[in-house]
Amino acid sequence: MTNKNNKKPNDKNSKKDVGLADDNLLAKVINLTKRRGFVFPSADIYGGFRSAYDFGPVGVLLLRNVKETWWYSMVQTRDEVVGLDASILSPPAIWEASGHLENFTDPLVDCKACGVRHRHDQLEDKDTCPDCGKKGEMTEPRQFNLMFKTSAGPVADSGADVYLRPETAQGMFINYGLVANASRKKPPFGIAQIGKSFRNEITPGNFIFRTREFEQMEMEYFVPPEESPKWHKYWCEERLNWYINLGIPKDMLQLREHGPDERSHYSDATSDVEFKYPWGWGELEGIANRTDFDLSQHAKHSGKKLEHLDSETGEKYIPHVIEPAAGATRAMMAFLIAAYDEEEVKGEKRTVLRLDWRLAPYKAAVLPLSKKPELSKKAKEVLELLQPLYMVDFDETQSIGKRYRRQDELGTPFCITVDFESLDDDAVTVRDRDSMEQDRVTTKDLVKYLAEHLKNQ
Ligand code: ATP
Predict the structure, then answer these.
(1) Domain boundaries, position 118
(2) Distance from CA of residue 279 to its chain's centroid?
């Protein structure tokens, strides 16, 4: 969370970002993702529901892979980080203590001429409406709280107020003591969580960059107070490298330190991993030093002790917290943009998603050359050999050339073609997505071949 009152204008707003006619790359990615089943506008048959999206058959796989690679690097391969899945519905007491009821606001202005609402901090010319172009018609900015409020139970009195969480982080803070005891961890240690968050954004837009319902991948790393600068630096490097390691080119990423006026109410230092979106640099992930702000606040408001007792020194302290906070859906968008490529092959345009194999929705596709029953049967055997290991697509419609193009657009690293020779030599042709080179591989060696080649792709 950046300071909602002092945000840098890093993304454009309102109607302009819906059409994107002037932005070719983003328009192409949006088109491909709808056509191929990654991302659909929500409630499409009812004309769409602005800024909400549904993830289709391959989008759900890509999003899962983004989350799984994050979990792998943040939890599975670290003995000092444990997981959590906290509830989305939460009582006002949490948000009172965390400061969100008071501070989680954006400055809102209305255009008196056309009625469209804008975020004051994102307006280049504060006096002119970017929608109707009228000057001098903007209202004074007023603070608008971004939390979604609803009520629990049958009686909608004020005692029934609940909030949809605007960040997953508070789940880690309120469970700090329970997790530390149950997992027998002591600082430095982390609690990681992936889940949905909700913000009533004034100006959602730019596809899945800013939506009102989105998924976050956050980790709260509890450290001795004096070690917090060291760990902040460490996590900035780690998180930047995570994106590079998953195939985003270095020149599309940068770390940017927040100025003091930009930081959230709890933050002592924040750096963003920024990505070069088609409209310019913008936040992909924030790495904040949240100090002991949240634990101290919850201790004060709940009356419960949230401190660590060092059994060796006898010292008691409230840990400080370093928080790498990423958006799963926003990261998915960055991976799609970075992976999108077009090239000319034998005079024809080829569109290919050069996704890292770990992110690719399908690791392979099995394609029988024709629909003849004996080929289908053989191809199904190959499919069943691979299905326990990977997500594998199966496609026997249209020409083989069209099927290759479709898999290229899905980012599938390997196409496995079963032809009539396969019936005699028990071998298949494996085509590499990026080089388009083909190898003949016996089905006996296929599992080993894929395991080796996927890692090297
Ligand atoms: P922004 O400055 O873009 O509003 P933020 O600083 O408020 O983001 P954080 O509170 O740091 O965001 O949230 C951590 C991450 O969650 C962000 O880096 C982003 O990837 C993701 N995120 C935040 N808000 C949204 C949103 N409305 N839609 C999609 N992802 C979001």
Answers:
(1) 106-144
(2) 18
